[in-house]
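Lecture 7, part 2: worked example. A protein chain together with heme C.
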Amino acid sequence: MICPRLALIAVVAASVLAACGPGGTAAAPPSPGARLYANNCLACHQKDGAGVPGVQPPLAATPVPVGDPRELLGWVLFGERPDSLPRGQYAGVMPQFGYLSDDDLATLLSFVRSSFGNHASAITPAMVAEARAAHRAR
Ligand code: HEC
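Predicted complex, written out as structure tokens:
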């Protein structure tokens, strides 16, 4: 005889598996930009780009992420501080990301500029290359 409680557990387990398994409501795989963001920025700026108050700034509703691409690139690649990001607002320190490839930086920063409620223009690999050249000339 099958214990009715066991049968109930089996039904619940089956529906949980159906909901989580392949073909269920599994989320779509992340885009390349989302993956680059997750690997390089998410730990500090958080999944939703909201940052951590007083420690790391949000990447939405702030000027640098959606502003002049040259300022954004100078900051993210080389830590060149834009005027709109006065020193001393945040306890955290941001590493520099100039070691990422032009393609990866373009994909990553275009993702940031079109996520978290942002609607700014894309960054191309050529713009990243230009920012490197401008930095070298300084
Ligand atoms: C270790 C934590 C950390 C990581 C990782 C990090 N950041 Fe930051 N980020 C910060 C902090 C802290 C600041 C503010 C720094 C300051 O004012 O000195 C900042 C500032 C910024 C700003 C300026 C925001 C504003 O208010 O204008 C942008 C844009 C930005 N980060 C983008 C990125 C991107 C893109 C990545 C991933 C490639 C990234 N950050 C990774 C900590 C981090």
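The chain has one domain: 28-137. The helical segments are 4-20, 32-40, 42-45, 63-66, 69-78, 102-113, 125-137. Keep this in mind for problem set question 3.
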